[in-house]
Amino acid sequence: MADHPTTGDIPTLRAQRESGAQTARAVVDRYLERLQARRDLNSYVLVAEDDARTAAEDVDAGNRPGPLAGVPLAIKDNILVEGQPCTCGSRMLDGWVAPYDATAVARLRAAGAVFLGKTNCDEFGMGSSNENSYFGPAKNPIDPSRVTGGSSGGSAAAVADGQAMAAIGSDTGGSIRLPASYCGVIGLKPTYGAVSRWGLVAFASSLDQIGVLARTVDDARSVFHVIRGHDPRDATSRTDPPIHEETRPRRIGLLREYLEEGLDPDIRAAVLKVADALKEQGHDIVDASLPSARYALQTYYIICCAEASSNLARYDGVKYGYRTGNAAELIDMFEQTRDQGFGDEVKRRILLGSYVLSAGYFDQYYGTAQRMRQAIISDYTRAFVEVDCLLTPTAPNCAFPIGEKLDDPLTMYLVDVYTTSVNLAGLPGLSFPCGAIGGLPIGAQLIGRPMEEDLLLDLAGQVYESVRPTITLASE
Amino acid sequence: MSITHDEVIHTATLARLRLTDAELDRFSRELARITEYMDQLKEAVEQLGDDDVPAVRTDSRMTLRPDHIEQWFDSSVVLRAAPDTKGHLFRVPKVIG
User: Fold this and answer.
1) CA distance B75 to chain A (A)
2) Is A175 annotated in the active site?
């Protein structure tokens, strides 16, 4: 008997396919049927039915063996899949077709994975709710009146809702972990440089990282192990090997600054329950502190906007993408194209970024943020002398109603308060569901030393079954 | 010191963004609040000790690939994505009025 798309996992799929119990084509058909039935959730901006069926038939013909043979995956629409449109959730790239595969996509393809389509996201990855998409917000499959979190909202919703077995997203300040938390799935943001950024459309290049969303810890690990590794096409890709030592008792720090005043008591209790579960597994739970962490959000928004204003200068209506139809002169064409092609949040961040880099303000904002970034890195380095990893909430709240924070950008930025320091320091972070408030999932976050993703996955795997909430999807 | 309305107009020009008056008003209000929030950082950084701020970034690493020619796209693939072309060139509206 075939699994329902919402419950299947990679090892079961592999066993069933290898035993002849079901074909890759049948699995892919079932997922396509599911995602078509759930189109109202707006998880996908493109469904690649024909490509997916052809790829699955290739798996069944024995032409695509590999660790992910026949595994139906979703790809965030800011990551290139050759021959498929890549919009980044923006009018600016509506209709643009990717001429090559991102390295992560090429590795998944070589491992036998089947791509179902491209998932909805905040425009160019800029947002915490997936409401900043040219194609409208993705809706939370647990309660469609609520946001998915962002920016990889479509990927998280697709995985939670059984519209994909796992998905690829990107995380610049929490864009994998936050939607994972809001939709009740696992989200892994790897070490900066662990996964190649080749073929990921740039938002903030010193922070962007491709990662994984999945329903089980093992599935997240399987997909991550395929996409990681050095790539000469990304100069920031790391050449050192991943660290994975034997299982042994670890010291886990409860990060004081992320559990203090203002935090919802139910969220604090859920995170402390994870600490208790880890203790029962033989690990030491200790107090830990990152004094500079309280300034991570300001630091993050200065640096990411500065980098975005530079990266998005390329969208000028000349080489690719949207161009206005009614400009007589070049500068006029640039300005009208960018005004019509970009949405509000992208314009806001380009303005902020241009401002903090402009003459007279560079030292006050950008220079100051770079100094604080170093202080945050130093704090983490000191903390990791005492502990092997840190435990925090992923977000200060659960999924909020669509539209609630849309008119208040600063309040929207505050939902990233526990995730951004991890990107500033280039560390791996893992979010997993650890409780619920009124049926809405709560996420716990483990933060590790560089290249120690496997430790985070091991620890989450040890406690996941005991802390995971029961999540009920909205009915079809 | 938060961003002023005039600074938003100047910054939009630098960023090649043509904003409507309504957009300018709204962005000015929003960005003033955001930059005020960002201003908290300056005071915090002044209180940092020297050992908090290493002179050299310890985490940065760049590995440049070998400097050799690699076969990549034919120029026609790149040009196909452009809004307007002529032969092997991108075509744009007139540059000098």
Assistant:
1) 12
2) yes
